[in-house]
Amino acid sequence: MMRSGADISAAICARAAQGAPALIAYLTAGFPTRETFQSALAQVLDVADVVEVGVPFSDPMADGLTIQHSSRVALEQGTTLGWTLDVIQSCRQVGAVPLLLMSYLNPLLSYGMDRLAVDAAEAGVSGLIVPDLPFEECIEVRPPLDAAGLGLVQMVTPVTPPARLALLADESRGFVYAVTQTGITGQAVAADGELIGYLRRVREAAALPVCAGFGIRSADQVRALAGHADGCIVGSALIEALKDGRDVAGFLQGLKS
After folding, report:
1. Partners of 20 in the β-ladder
2. Which of 33, 110, 116, 253 has the fewest CB atoms within 10 Å, i.e. is most exposed?
3. CATH number of 5-256
4. Which of 46, 49, 59, 63 is flagged as catalytic?
């Protein structure tokens, strides 16, 4: 089934219309093992509103220790972008939940952008997040993605200048990724007045849903962000649950409830 960036926006808005932030769940492809990843992905697809699958990379810039570790483990088992797309395609029958790829630029360029756009769309991917791709350097990346209907999500931070915030919010597809702190993933964030004010600025600049990510680990944080963010992105805490062998569906359901 062909997907698009519009599917991502619709899923987030549908959940937000119920009075709660949408839950965007991040998994590292091939973690904790290649043999168990498909089952884990299927469980997450049953609960999350949107799913983000990270392509393991040896030199991540934005990831904290938890996701760095998961990427290393996955790479040591031979996880590749092609294998990841195959697993995603095999799981699409589980449900109609939109799914994104999160990848650094090198694996995408090595695969080939034209080929990636076609293969990702056929696998049922709705969009991409590329943390190390500045907007100004999207010229070779966006055309094949646009042609395939894949959204390229843009990221903003608390220190993004107003003019650039407006540009990125306008150019993003699917949602605007509001990084909650000037740091790496995994560090807990407080839903204080400073964060709420930042999210308000992003929402004022964006026509798309705004989703908060980095440091969201608990149901209390999700509740505190209700009305301030359209969605919450949970990554490191979910990876830790997988590593510990916990019930990931139950963990995510707890965040939603």
Report:
1. none
2. 110
3. 3.20.20.70
4. 63
> Cα 131 to chain center, whole Å?
10
Task: Please pick, among 7, 49, 52, 230, the residue that the annotation labels catalytic.
Answer: 52
Element (H or E) spanning 254, and its range?
helix 248-256
> Of 81, 135, 89, which is closest to residue 107 (Cα–Cα)?
81
From CA 143, how far away is CA 159, in angstroms rounded? 28
- Give me 222's structure tokens: 């999700």
CA-closest candidate to residue 145, choices 118, 172, 176: 118
Which spans in 77-205 are helix H?
Answer: 81-91, 105-111, 113-123, 142-148, 162-171, 193-205
Q: Which amino acid is at 157?
A: T
Among the listed residues 186, 181, 182, 252, the one whose alpha carbon sits nearest the alpha carbon of residue 222: 252
The CA–CA distances, whole Å, from 86 to 26, 30, 204 equal 18, 12, 38
Q: What is the dihedral of CA 125, 183, 69, 48, to 10 degrees?
A: -40
Sole residue written with tokens 């997450």: 44
Tens digit of each residue's pLDDT (9 = 90 or more) over 229-241: 999 999 999 999 9
- Those residues with Cβ within 8 angstroms of residue 14's Cβ, 6 or more apart along the chain or in another chain: 22, 49
21-77 tens-digit pLDDT? 999 999 999 999 999 999 999 999 999 999 999 999 987 776 678 889 999 999 999
Q: What does pTM read for this prediction? A: 0.92
> Catalytic: 63?
yes
Catalytic residue flag (residue 52):
yes
CB-based contacts of 158, cutoff 8 Å, min separation 6: 179, 180, 181, 182, 194, 195, 198
Helix (H) or strand (E) holding 150: none
